[in-house]
Every structure is written in structure tokens, then in C-alpha cells.
Amino acid sequence: MKMKSLMLTAAVAALATPALAEVKVGMITTLSGGGAGLGIDVRDGFMLAIKQSGRDDIEVVIEDDQRKPDVAVQLADKMIQSEKVDVLTGIIWSNLAMAVVPSVTAQGKFYLSPNAGPSALAGKGCHENYFNVAWQNDNLHEAAGSYANTAGYKNSFILAPNYPAGKDALTGYKRFFEGNLAGEVYTQLGQTDYAAEIAQIRASGADSVFFFLPGGMGISFLKQYADSGVDIPVVGPAFSFDQGILQAVGDAALGVVNTSQWSKDLDNEANTAFVASFEAEYGRLPSLYASQGFDTANLLISAVEAADVSDADAFRAALEAADFASTRGAFKFGPNHHPIQTIYAREVIKEGDVYTNKIIGVALEDHADAYAADCKM
Amino acid sequence: MTPLLLAEQILNGLQFGVMLFLMAAGLTLIFGVMGLINLAHGSLYMVGAFAAAAAAGATGSFALGLAAALAAAAMAGALVEILVIRRLYARDHLDQVLATFALILIFSEGTRWLFGSFPLFLDVPGALSGPVTLPGGIQYPLYRLALIGIGLLVAAGLGLLIARTRIGIQIRAGENDREMIAALGVDISRLYTLIFALGAALAGLAGALVGAIQSVQVGMGEPVLILAFVVIVIGGIGSIKGAFIGALLVGLTDTLGGIFLPELFKLFMEPATATSAGASLASMLIYILMGAVLIFRPTGLFGSRA
């Protein structure tokens, strides 16, 4: 009996020790359909960092989730069970992250989020194996609220789509904005015509407009807003002003202030090198999503250098140390494994023929999220 | 709620309605005459918008963009009809749904392959940009007024085409009895291709016109397609008049519902809950309208009585 269990232990130990000290990463992201631009940027940023590291012991398996939670769940199961990945990453949308992350971390795998940061995973639902390298969802909206105070706005009209991230957005803005609300509107998710809302804005007597309308919704809103002749200043999070979208909005976005943890013109060595190498590799300017993908990969590489992934505690400690050169400059994790970072106010400008962003000031310095206190790891 | 704001919202509803009509007209003709459920109609809307954005980007002329949209969508429509749809007329609706759904995927990924994953830029032409002041002091974007005008013109033209021309007679005859008009010597397969291309061109026109104030991106057609189906179910399948009335009803209901319901709820609820609940109910409103119409007129407002 004793002999048998000893042999069993030895066999298990032999199985557990990999033949090669190789790290396998599963990337589940959106590569087709309407939201593909974001996933492609995250993937390209991530792979650029892997390529630059010159390491051949990190293998990345990439799959397309089609922006569907059920597909993402299947892919995660497949990656864990048959591909035997050690680390998962890549998910863009919060609803997909909510479907995948809890089961991934419960199975002892690491998850590094390059984008989605739902409040549920930052507070009570936090996990020692879950790291968010981008932001908690509320962060950029809180920064927009704080910027609105600095700009002297007293009466804001706020709007967002009627879904969880939209509600988080308006909550985030209201958490920091000290003025009154001239109106609060929830639009339909995927809505393309904002004539009715713009008429309300015109009639509301607001002195500023805050909106969170990611992707195509923001393009539609900004074009229609510019054409309506309403000239109340607009603020928003960076999602409606990223490099991929700005070219489709055109002049309508010029001068709009938006909040972001990253910008192309952030002055630090890592970022300058990142922007130049990204443009050289892919022939386009990086977006904030690309910078998040790049940072996620560099965080992973720093941890792989410091610890073996099969030693979960050491690997986790190496991730927590966040010892890598971020495109955002200084980078550190809070107690709930979400970034504590400075968020900037940027203005949309035109450089030659290209629309892009320029930093005009700091919106929130060393900002942590509001849910960290609820996290018990 | 001032009368001014109300008038502006009614204009918004009208504008939304006439654009829906352009989509629904083609859909209802195709369904009425050929008995075909065409899910790929939204893709033709997208084709129109992308063709317009590409042509306007290359030449700088919005009018050329519109022409390109009409041509590209009509050609794509005719091609799809000849290559794929023609084999489906005799099959049941489930096969048609499956095949045209496949077309959606092919069109979407094909467009992404050609134009990339990022939205394209298409702007309102300079002559039509900016707001105008209407009688009564309403500031309203000129381009949206132009959309209402174009939509009404197309509706009138279609009405004349159906009621007064030889093609129109054939279309109406085709709706009533396909076998009979084939037996009378009308080249039915040419008629089908023509109707399909006409419907596609209208969808492409809508895509290009709306693309200028919205985002030209892959998958832009599908949300409109769903609304267009609601319109033709309300209006009665096969009826252009029904599609027109249905489109205006849906446009006005959707726009005004989104404004008034939250205001109404605020009378007896907290503002935050009221906006949230009002917005949720408002997005259901057109489906409630559809349900109500179907209860009283099972074949739609202007559908032929079974």
C-alpha cells in the first residue's frame, strides 16, 4: 500500500514536470465582426512584445471569440483541457470576461486582462490569479468627471447605452463630478441614430456633455452632434477616440477632450520605442488597445523571466511585482491586482492628414479603483 | 416638453421612418413576389455604404459616392440572385434562411477582407452640412431634411412604378399568381432578377445616405434588417403602401417612445430608475406595436386577406 502510493506520487510528479520549461498562452479575443478592430490591436500589440523579447519558450495560441460569450467559454475550455495552456488573456468585452474569467481562475490558471475590467471582478469577485493590466471599467469615466470639475463645468448632460458597462460609466462619472445633471439618458445598445438625444441635449440647457458610446455608436453620435449645430463641449473616455475610430469620425472629433491612461505622445522611453516599432511593424499608429496588449505581454515576459509558471505562488509574486517597462511609465498593481495609475486628459488634434490625440493635462493622479476595499484574497 | 422639441422629434421620427422604408420596400417586394426570405438584405445596405465611402473618398464627391452605392448594391443584388437565390425559390423558407444567412457571413467577412476592420469615413456633403432654421425657430440639420425629401421622392416614384408601368403590372401579377404570369409569356426569371436588383439598389441607397451620418462598418446592416422585417410585418407582406405606412409608424414610435416614456415614468418614479426603465420599455415598444397590429390584422395593415 505504502509502496503503491509512493509510486503514484512519483508518477504524478513526473507528469507535472514539463519536458521543456515552456509557457503556453491562450489568447481569446475578438477578431471578426463589428468589434474586431479592438481585438486585432490587442493581438498585434501583444505579439509585437513577444517578438521583441526574442524568446522562443513562450507559445501563444490565438482564437477568435466572435464577441460571443458562449464561444469564448468553449474556447477557454478547449485551451485549458486540450491545449494545456498556463495563462489566458485577450478578452475585450466585459460580458465575455464575466463568462470566462471566474472558471479559468478557479481551475488554477492565470488570467491577464488586456482590456475588460468589470467591477464584479475588482471587488468581491476578485481572485489571486486574475490580473487586470488595463483598468477597472469605471476608471476612465471617473477621470472624465474629475476633468469636468477642473474645466469648470457645472451642469452636465450624460448618456450611455443601457447595459452594465454603460451603467458603470455613468456611475463612474457621477462619482467624481461635483456639478448638477441637466439630463441622464440611457440609449439602446447598438443604437445608430442619436437625433432624439441631441434634441434633448439642445433643450436641456447643459454646459457640458459626457458620453460613453464605444465603437460605431460613438462615431455616429459625434458625426450627428457636429452636424446638429449644438456647440456644448463634449467629454468622454478614450474608447470613442482611439486611433482606429478617429479617422472615421474626422473633423467632428477635433478639439474633443477625452480621458485615457495612455497616449501616443506620453513621454517615456518604453512608449517612444513602442510607438515607433508598432508603426514600423504594422504600418499604422497604435491605439490604446494595442498599448494594453503590449503591456500585458511585457508583464507576462517579466514574470516568466523571474519564476517558473509551474510554481504558481512564485509566478504570482513575479506578476504582482510588475517589474517591466510599461508604455504608461510607472506601473503598479493595487491589492486587487488592478492598476494604480495616472489618467490623462487628451485632446483630439490633426497631425498632417491623421487625426490623433495630444495630452493636455492630468485628470487623476495615481488613481486606484473604488472596489479594491471589497476584495478579500 | 416644449412644442418646439416635440416638432423636432417628429421630424426625427419621419427621417428614421423614410430611411427604414427604403430598406423595407425591397424586402417586401422580394418576399411578396418571389416568396423569398432574404436575410442578406442588410448586407446589401452595407455594400451600398462601403461603396459610397470608397468612391466618395477617392473622388471627393458625395454624388459620385451615391451613384457608386446604387450601382454596387444593384450589381451585388443581381449577382446574388443569379448565383444563389435562383436555386432557392422552390425550396422551403428554412433553406432560404440558412442560405441567405450564409450570405451575411460571406458579405461581412468579404468586406472586412477588402476594407479592413476599422470603420470607414463618409461625411455629409458640404452643401448639405450644418443646421437650418425652420419656421417656428427649430434648428434642424439640413442633411436630415434632405433625407426626408429623398425618401418621400423614392416612395412616390416606387408608387408610380408599381401602379402605372408595365413592370409594375408584372410585379403585381407576380404577387398574385406566379405560375400564371409565367404561362402568359412573361420572362419570370428576368423579372425576378430585376426586382431583386431594384430592392438591392434601394437598400444600397439607404446605406449610403445613412452612412454619412452614422458609422460605415461591417455588420451595420443587421440591426436595420430586423427593423425592416418588423416594418413589413406591420405593413403587410408584399405591399409597398404597407411598407411606407409601417416604416413611418415604426420610425415615429421608436423615436417618440424613447423620449416620452422616461419622461412619463419620471412622474411616479425616481429619475434614475425612470430613465433606465423607460429606456428599456421604449426599446420594446415597436415589438409591442407589431404584436398589437398582428392581433387585430393578422396579415398586417395592408396585407392581402388570406
Automatic annotation (TrEMBL), chain A:
SUPFAM superfamilies: Periplasmic binding protein-like I. Residues 22-352 form the Leucine-binding protein domain. InterPro entries: BCAA_transport (IPR051010), Leu-bd (IPR028081), Peripla_BP_I (IPR028082). Transmembrane segments: none annotated. One of its GO terms (biological process) is amino acid transport. Residues 1-21 form the signal peptide. Keywords: Amino-acid transport, Signal, Transport. The keyword Signal applies. It comes from the Bacteria. Pfam families: Peripla_BP_6. Belongs to the leucine-binding protein family. PANTHER family: LEUCINE-SPECIFIC-BINDING PROTEIN, PERIPLASMIC BINDING PROTEIN OF ABC TRANSPORTER FOR NATURAL AMINO ACIDS. This is Leucine-, isoleucine-, valine-, threonine-, and alanine-binding protein. It comes from Pseudoruegeria aquimaris. The lineage of its organism: Bacteria, Pseudomonadati, Pseudomonadota, Alphaproteobacteria, Rhodobacterales. The gene is braC_2.
Automatic annotation (TrEMBL), chain B:
One of its GO terms (molecular function) is transmembrane transporter activity. It is a multi-pass membrane protein. Keywords: Amino-acid transport, Cell membrane, Membrane, Transmembrane, Transmembrane helix, Transport. GO terms for biological process: amino acid transport. It holds the Pfam family BPD_transp_2. It is found in: Cell membrane. One of its GO terms (cellular component) is plasma membrane. It comes from the Bacteria. The chain crosses the membrane at residues 16-37, 44-60, 66-85, 97-122, 142-163, 191-213, 219-237, 244-265, 277-296. Belongs to the binding-protein-dependent transport system permease family. LivHM subfamily. This is High-affinity branched-chain amino acid transport system permease protein LivH.
